[in-house]
Amino acid sequence: MDEEPAEHKDPVEQTLTGVSRDQSAQGNSQSGEDVTDRLRELSEHAGVLSRKNTHLANALRAARQELAALHEDIKALQLPPLAHATVLDVDPGARTADVSIAGRRHRVGVGPAVVSSSLHAGDDVVLNEHLVITATCPSPRFGEVVTVKETYDDGTVLVLARHDEEQVLSLSETLSDHRPRVGDALVADLAVRMALRPVVRSEVEELVLEEVPDVGYGDIGGLGEQIELIRDAVELPFLHPDLYREHRLTPPRGVLLYGPPGCGKTLIAKAVAASLGAGGRGEAYFLNIKGPQLLDKYVGETERRIRVIFARAREKAATGVPVVVFFDEMDSLFRTRGSGRSSDVETTVVPQMLAEIDGVDELDNVVVIGATNREDMIDPAILRPGRLDVKIRIGRPDRRGAAEILATYLTPDLPISEELMVAHGDAQSAVDALIEQVIEALYTRRRATEMVELTRSDGQVEILHVADLVSGAMLANIVDRAKKAAVKDLVTSGRRGLTQEHLHRAVIEEIMENEGLPATVHPDDWARVSGRRGTPVVSMSVLQRSREE
After folding, report:
1. Same domain, yes or no: 125 and 213
2. What is the pLDDT of residues 468-482, one digit of tens each?
3. Which residues are registered as beta bridge partners of 167?
4. Tens-place pLDDT, residues 116-131
5. When you count CB atoms within 10 A of the terminal residue's CB, does the N or C end of the chain come out lower?
6. Residues 215, 277: one domain?
7. Structural domain of 493
8. Neighbours of 334 (CB within 10 A)
């Protein structure tokens, strides 16, 4: 039907229709707002779900990795046990190796993951169930310590193990590059018969420290006669061996220097080594051995150290280099056997020393020099001809000798006081005056210089003056005291240079410092160490005198 024209519609109907339209418009507006809010809520919810999903994905990934790791662990637990072995020899071409497993030798293959050329004797490797090398491991840092007794050209060594058991061991690659020497300590795996690596024993190395002396005969004063004797005994055979062979002379094997302490025995031995080096190849070795340091409480250790010392000497001498083995304080180490003055150690140490000295005859470049204050306490077997057959007494210096010693310490290049220089004209004359002053103070015998009174078993009484107790070390101390006093005066008062007063006070202080020492020891022992011979001393007293004169 055709709609009626608007002008013909009912007014009430028209009004209701308008209201309905208004309500419909309002409803549509409210519905749009609700949709927007709902969409916002859904978007936020979707974001939360996305984040949860990401978290779950990460958790699942981590769980998957943990499961994979657990699976690998389970597979590893199901594998048969792997064995460790020590490489003995390698054949890179055949990709095989000889290994030791629990002391048994096996020939095994080298796996593809291991470079066969990188394997060396002594390496620690891992074997699978098919006895194939699959990996290498760091070598163990433990083992038994053995001592090298002999070395051989085929790469093996004779060692002393527990209870002095002798065994022949092969050398690892580390030791093959640096061949061990007799007396060296090595870490060994006795189950595989192989020495693995060296062990540094510092106390032994210190005993055989190879020094190159820088002391010449010109540095030693007052011992011209003794120096000439030792040069004739030692240097001539070393420097002119052809002449000795032509005249059918046998070079001495050893020299004994004996005398009071502080008189230059050690200096002479060093000068000999330096002179031998200067006269030959320009190189010499000086093995300075302290007797008390060589002693050890453990049975056989002292003898082992003596063997090490002479092994070092033979090794160096084999290269044509002169070697001087110097034993200081020799009486403490090689006392007369059965004397009862030391432990039973001399019953084994002395024979070991004799064996080593007798073995020196096959060498052309080794000389043994011993020094002692008590030559009467050394075993006679060591002092007989053919061993330490040259004996040289190093006595206390006389006036002339003391002046020569002082001249090595008091030289014209030292700071000398201006007054002394003016009084004597030049530096050398001033130094000569200082030396003469010290000599007069020490060697003039008067009541002020009386030091010790000795009473011997036959009733004789002997008075020792300062001149009877002078040594090179004492003279060096006097000069050092004077120099320190001069330095102190320069710092405190600005007065420069050595003076006669400095030397005078130094002499008095040195005498007073040493006058009370003899009372602390046995009279006869002190007398013999000080160089006094004759009948035994039964008593001794220190004479107290005014030293200011």
Report:
1. no
2. 888 888 899 999 999
3. 159
4. 888 988 899 999 888 8
5. N
6. yes
7. 399-542
8. 26
